[in-house]
Specification:
Blueprint (H helix, E strand, L loop, with lengths): L5 H29 L5 E5 L9 H15 L4 E3 L5 H12 L3 E6 L13 E5 L2 H10 L1 E6 L4 H15 L8 E4 L1 H16 L12 E3 L3 H10 L17 H27 L9 H16 L2 H13 L24 H51 L1
């Protein structure tokens, strides 16, 4: 695995933490605001359709009918289908909530909203649109509408949220979608019962009837409160994961708050190395090294003077070596050896001559004494 510099990891960690905090802030704010009104009917659809299109006319009539029956209308807060549904509810005096979002092309809230929230992130907006609703309605739309539709279908299919009424308005338009669903069933990609999650119709009265059947929950109540997934094992796993994420976020927040230097952030390997170094120092303290040096000095024979080693002077320059110079040096050494051998031979000859002279003198003395005795 490629090792990334610690300062880069630290920057990524802080950036991720800041991003996570921004996500949480956007989502928390949205959930807090939707708790201020009872769950209503969320209407999805294109922002590009003109107000005189048949789908926008239908959405206007639906918004008005819902207001007449006391149901709040929740939309994305923009133009097109969203504006038409809000307009119908607004004209009757109903409550219209727009969950708008900041976009590159600056989507402005439509003028028929009694309440408006602006989000930074799509996912926080989608969660809030779902949590605010007891019935879902989909008019024709583009990628954004299909994204919201497919996510809600998946969540209901997998039991991640309660199966709430869902209506796709416009039989002609949704015919292609229904055909694609049939293809999925034939290939075994989904179960036939999954088609019970949604209903395709042109009659907006089905939506009003479903909302009336559910009734008008209190502001303090939400159908998603207390909802539990079918699998308790999965729920426990999710809880454990959330606890781990929460602990990690708290730890990261402490790091950022204390402005800990890079080398102290999550550097487990360095801590291990430091601990190892401390262990080595404990095993071989300085005192023991000094005592060892004293022992060596005591073992030095008396009368022997230790000489400091000659200093090595390194001028940092590489010297060229001459093979001939080396040869001449060797020849000089051999010549000096011969001279020393000659000197030794001369000394030996002189000593031998002296010894012979001494012996001759002794012999002469002995002979002289003998002659005198005679």
């Amino acid at each position: 695995m490629t090792t990334i510099e610690e300062d880069v990891l630290k920057k990524l960690s802080i950036a991720d933490l800041e991003r996570a905090n921004a996500y949480a802030k956007d989502l928390t704010r949205g959930l807090q605001i939707i708790r201020s009104f009872p769950q209503g009917v969320t209407i999805f659809g294109s922002a590009r359709l003109p107000q005189d299109s048949p789908y926008c006319v239908s959405a206007y009539n639906l918004g008005k009918a819902l207001a007449e029956n006391g149901h709040a209308v929740i939309t994305g807060g923009g133009p097109g289908i969203m504006e038409a549904a809000s307009h119908g509810s607004y004209d009757y005096g109903g409550r219209t909530i727009g969950l708008n979002i900041t976009l590159a092309h600056e989507q402005f809230p439509n003028p028929y909203l009694t309440d408006c929230i602006t989000f930074e992130y799509f996912f926080a907006r989608k969660v809030s649109l779902a949590m605010a609703s007891k019935v879902f309605v989909f008019y024709p739309g583009g990628f954004g509408t299909m994204d919201e539709l497919s996510e809600l279908l998946c969540l209901m299919q997998e039991g991640k949220m309660p199966k709430m009424p869902m209506y796709l308005i416009g039989e002609t338009y949704w015919k292609g979608f229904d055909k694609m669903i049939g293809k999925m069933i034939s290939l075994g990609l989904i179960a036939a019962k999954d088609t019970n999650i949604f209903h395709i119709t042109d009659d907006i009265n089905h939506v009003v009837e479903a909302a009336n059947k559910i009734g008008h929950p209190k502001v303090s109540e939400n159908f998603y409160d207390g909802f539990r997934e079918a699998s308790s094992i999965e729920k426990d796993a999710v809880n454990d994961a959330m606890s781990a994420i929460s602990a990690a976020n708290e730890e990261a927040a402490d790091v950022v708050a204390k402005e800990v230097p890079t080398e102290e952030v999550g550097n487990i390997e360095r801590e291990a190395l430091v601990e190892g170094a401390e262990t080595v120092e404990e095993e071989a303290p300085v005192e023991e090294v000094e005592s060892t040096e004293e022992t060596i000095e005591d073992e030095t024979p008396d009368g022997v003077v230790e000489e400091d080693p000659p200093e090595v002077v390194d001028d940092g320059i590489d010297e060229a070596i001459d093979d001939e110079a080396i040869g001449e040096g060797i020849g000089d050494d051999e010549a000096s050896d011969d001279d020393e051998a000659s000197d030794d031979d001369e000394i030996s000859s002189e000593e031998a001559a002296e010894e012979e002279a001494v012996e001759e003198a002794e012999e002469e003395a002995v002979e002289k004494e003998t002659e005198e005795d005679e």
